[in-house]
Known about the structure:
Blueprint: H1 5-51, H2 55-69, H3 71-103, E1 116-118, H4 123-129, H5 134-143, E2 146-148, E3 154-158, H6 162-178, H7 183-212, H8 219-226, E4 232-233, E5 236-237, H9 238-256, H10 260-269, H11 282-292, H12 297-305, H13 315-329, H14 338-353, E6 358-364, E7 369-374, H15 381-398, E8 406-411
Parallel strand pairs: 7-8
Antiparallel strand pairs: 1-3, 2-3, 4-5, 6-7
Helix pairs in contact: 3-9, 5-7, 6-7, 7-8, 9-10, 9-13, 10-12, 10-13, 11-12, 12-13
Amino acid sequence: xxxxxxxxxxxxxxxxxxxxxxxxxxxxxxxxxxxxxxxxxxxxxxxxxxxxxxxxxxxxxxxxxxxxxxxxxxxxxxxxxxxxxxxxxxxxxxxxxxxxxxxxxxxxxxxxxxxxxxxxxxxxxxxxxxxxxxxxxxxxxxxxxxxxxxxxxxxxxxxxxxxxxxxxxxxxxxxxxxxxxxxxxxxxxxxxxxxxxxxxxxxxxxxxxxxxxxxxxxxxxxxxxxxxxxxxxxxxxxxxxxxxxxxxxxxxxxxxxxxxxxxxxxxxxxxxxxxxxxxxxxxxxxxxxxxxxxxxxxxxxxxxxxxxxxxxxxxxxxxxxxxxxxxxxxxxxxxxxxxxxxxxxxxxxxxxxxxxxxxxxxxxxxxxxxxxxxxxxxxxxxxxxxxxxxxxxxxxxxxxxxxxxxxxxxxxxxxxxxxxx
Length: 421
């Protein structure tokens, strides 16, 4: 079949006519759309004129009417959702805590610091004392401890510094085996023992950090952490407590979506102030130490806030405090001789009461706080401040109280006037 030129012309003419028709219909549709838009606008304007409301105002009024009609239904739904959330939250919280405690179980066996050395032969005590006491003086001077030989079969070592006490114990055991007890040999053995204990502390610090999952910690901080091996708080070894707290805290953080690494290091360092010397509470000492090593602020805040000395600044700080409380408060975690405990509190109150102007005194918070009642007729405000300072200094010097002692002196002057009819 052959297509002629005439056929092509005819086909082209039809296409042009169809395009013109489509254009006309498009124009017509556009005019109708514009007309409908005008009608819609006119209708809206008429509604606004009749109701006296704008479109937004009408929407708000309609929503308010619907909300008023359905207020009871909405309130019931909200209450049901709140109750459901509470039930679910309690159950979820129990699951998180129980699972966290399970994860906190340790296979670490604590080695508590021993402060006594057994002596098989009482004659050895004479050799330890030495001629005119020169050996025992050299030993106490080299180790910084006090040695008590009064108890039969036992040499008791006492010191506020647990590391010194451990060095002294190990050095004394070495000397007893060596039998060469003289000032020069004592100094030599003590020096060797110090190096051994320093090495042990670094190894223990590395082991603790590894168990906690913390890495890239400066060696000096690791050595300080290693002192936890020789430190207990109410009978709870600090390594055991720190590991337990860290595992609990990290698990809680993962469950609720908090930063587990901040919690991990916050738990690891929270009690580091207990094994360093200085003025102030273990919280303050720990914070100052971590700042010197440029530890990130969120971690330092966890340490600063774990006893709520400062308001919590993050959810991670709250988790560290909770994990610390769980580990310390669980049954069997801590112990303290009741008689010694009562004696210490009684002695604290006696020290306060013997000061002039003090009417009464009460020890609180396991001996961490002492409240003193002042006779306002005997002491003014300035003298009250001075007495509080003196009491704190004497208590800190005379008694072994864990942490910083807070003395609160209360001076209240009352004037009562009555009128009889």
